[in-house]
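User: I'm curious whether this sequence folds into something compact or stays loose and floppy. Could you predict its structure so I can see for myself?
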Amino acid sequence: MSAVLRSPNRLAAGALGVVALAGGIVVSLLDRPLLGLVFYGAPGVALVLGSMRGVSAARAVNVGVGTAWAVLGYVGLFLAGTPLDVFEITALDEVALFAGATIVLAIGLGARRDKAPRR
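Assistant: Here's the prediction. I'll summarize afterward.
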């Protein structure tokens, strides 16, 4: 457990994974389409598993999930309120997607701690 806390990539992946997974469960309990579980629950599981595998895996999952959430957020901006909006994305979903994407992309691309610092 202490190895997870030493790496920002593993810590962010684990924490946001648990939050996303809980959000997916809440979305599935509400009167929303089960496809909502796809963009909250599945990335949550991927983030948690990536954080348990190691720094490189956590970093790759952070970048992958962040990119997917950013793309889904941008697509949701154009599809909101149209018949093609199968996820029924709301403004709150957009905020959550962009916030999550910003956090995991910033940490995945910027915080590399898998190598010892030079002295």
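Summary: The first helix runs from residue 2 to 6. DSSP finds five helices and no strands in the chain.
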